[in-house]
Amino acid sequence: MRRSRFNQGKRRYTRKSRGGKPRGGKPHIRRIFTPPGSDHTIEHRIAFLGNPNVGKSSLFNMLTGGHQHIGNWPGKTVEKKEGHYLFPRRIDNWIGGISRKPIEKKEGHLLLSDEYFSIIDLPGAYSLSAHSEEELITRKYVVEEEPDLVCVIVDATRLERTSYIALQALELTDNIALIVNMMDLAEKESIQIDRHKLEKQLGIPVLLVSAFDNSCIIRIKKFLYDALHTEKYTFTPAYLIYSQKLETMINSVSRQINNREILQDYPTRWLSIKVLEGDKWVISKLEEEYVLDDIFKKIEKLKISENFDPADEIPKRKYRALKSIVKKSVIGLEDFKEKKSDKVDKVVMHKFWGYPILILIYAVFFLITFSASGPVISGLDSLFISFSEIVRGWLLAINSPAFLTSLIVDGILSGITAVLLFVPIIIIFYILIAVMEDSGYLARSAYLMDIVLGKFGLQGTAFLSMIMGLGCNVTGVLAARTIKSERDRISMILTNSFIPCAATLGVLTSITSIFFKTKPWFAALLMLILYAMSFLLVFLSAMFFRLFLGKSDTMPLIIEIPEYRMPRLKNIFHLTWERAGVFIKKAGTFIFLASIVIWIASNIPYGASPQETIAGYIGSGLAFITEPLFGFDWKIVVTLLFGIAAKEVVISALSILGLLTAAWTTPQIIAFLVFQMTYAPCFATLAIIKSETKSWKMTAIGFFYPLILTSLITAAVYHILLLFF
Amino acid sequence: MNIMNKKISLADSTVNSIVKVEKITAGQKARRFLADLGVLEGVKLRIVKNDLGPVLIEVKATRVAIGRGIATKIEVTC
């Protein structure tokens, strides 16, 4: 038979047989443990798998609520999101939904104990091939960690495209269920999905839900419970039979690797398919044991003689099968229908009008960020000042030694204050970013910026990293993960510290408002020039790094543009919390430690004049170089040194050293501002550069490149200004 | 009818036309990623926007932006 068809698998796994592992290897043991505050419970591990933009994370958040843990996959930079919920165990003859009401407490004991459902929100991926770390982690998790159920989330309005990953997962595991999300949108487009037909064809349980519907949480919980416990659902996962030619090849590879010692957890058929697809990870693993040259020779021969490439043919067959599945189970699907988003995009993504709109949106964005955070910050500021006075008074009352009082109040408390003052600005900034992301505009701004950034050899996705960097460079570097091209990613990581973060802006505004009080127009112009310069440095450096990073790894821009939708409060909350959390964590560690170190450096020996402290000596030493070059005396040098620990500290260091009231020359002020904009990434950013690039060399470049470049620019600016003032 | 079957690159296709992908000559990595997003040989696309910058297409009810460089490597017929 030439045509591929979708076959019902012969294997039939009921719950019991799924408990043991069908493919051999280690037996599967369901972990039993006691989570705090509940009876003995059974833990079920369920993995959520799906494309980006299918509402996977929304469902995850709705199910697990506050019971989440966000960390990283061990040794990886990819985020790992885990959450859990408890669900009452049911007895078979118990009718009447899942409410626990009818059988509450009996003699002080819960009659029915809860079961513990642990959900792992796997990173959003388009497929299970090996071209990104996310996808590698995902498939490794599915196979090696053996979750009790892999739940694939798909979008009802785009069933065909979003189910592609489900078809791949079906080749990898049998314990699989499908949740079709966004049914409300599908109904609006009068798309009808026949759940039973879908179930029958795929051989797995299917649930239709809409994340906007309040009953969906309980329905999903019930669905997952039933899928794991009852005979209501049978698992007879379908697997795709490819064309005869492919099947012959799959079989011949399978025969060769059948008795392998490695990758025993992985199904043989899946491995064979991946070998034919040219999956580098699978091939390199298998080549530890086998010589696969014969297979590759065969593939090469087919490519030349028959123009037949299995790597193209396999996805093609999968899509063909999907098309027929969708055709049989969905009514009302219209090809190429113009959607509301398209009409809006005619203006928003217009080659000319798109840009004024973009500028307007981001102008409003920053206006809101800074005007809304202003009153909050000044309120917090006075609160903190009075609080530290109370603490000082209290410490004096208990006769604490003078240096301890100073360490606590001037060191630790003022350090914490400096940090906390930035929290409102960061939170508002990330709320607005989340609104733009959830509504779908962020992807569109990346699209529009691709045209601009393309001139500098950067991709549009680099724009997201830059925008994030305006809040905090740490999140900016993290956002570079979305850049598919490795070269662009590295160059964005290395240049992100050029982008002035909220703390740098804080220094900039406070200095200009003090020294150019009488010339507000000049201050505004200066800020604009400095920002333009920072971005110019990013662009030019990207072009510069291109020369070194080579053209080998150029992944062209291919991004999905999601439909516009109303931003959801819950999503915004979670996105903001995740990102602002990074900042707060950084504040809790780096800045806190830095403020203690800084206090020690500038107060030891205690009671000595500032110049005779540790910091004073270091500053004076460096001032021999910086004084003639940039006009920086030892105090300025010390301030900037502290700024490397955390940029937030610069303002407090300036005030502690009495620089805010000192007499500066104009060239000095401007040179200082130019220098502080871009001179070095802070410690936290450096740490994140290290963890993202996994290379000390890159980390060193990330530190010294800005430092040297900024020094050259500042020296030039200072000496030119000396001619005029 | 002859004009209808002419092979052109995706970058040269007209807005709102529905085209069929004939051949993708990009590297394997890019080809695989395009396939993940539903762009592969034999698939029909609608051109949503094609003036400056990346070509915006609709494929399997999803909007996908494809950089101009790679768009020239996708051969389509009307």
Q: Which secondary structure elements does this structure contain, and how are they paired or packed?
A:
The complex is a heterodimer of chains A (725) and B (78).
Chain A: E1 5-7, H1 15-19, E2 32-33, E3 41-50, H2 56-64, E4 68-72, E5 79-88, E6 105-106, E7 109-110, E8 114-121, H3 133-144, E9 149-155, H4 159-162, H5 164-170, E10 176-181, H6 183-188, E11 192-193, H7 195-202, E12 206-208, H8 216-229, E13 239-241, H9 244-257, H10 268-277, H11 280-286, H12 293-306, H13 310-329, E14 330-331, H14 340-348, H15 354-397, H16 402-420, H17 423-439, H18 441-454, H19 462-469, H20 473-479, H21 486-495, H22 502-515, H23 520-549, E15 558-561, H24 569-603, H25 614-630, H26 634-645, H27 649-656, H28 666-678, H29 683-693, H30 696-724
Parallel strand pairs in A: 3-8, 3-9, 9-10, 10-12
Antiparallel strand pairs in A: 1-13, 2-3, 4-5, 5-8, 6-7, 11-14
Chain B: E1 7-9, E2 18-24, H1 28-36, E3 44-49, E4 55-59, E5 62-66, H2 68-71, E6 74-77
Antiparallel strand pairs in B: 1-6, 2-3, 2-6, 3-4, 4-5
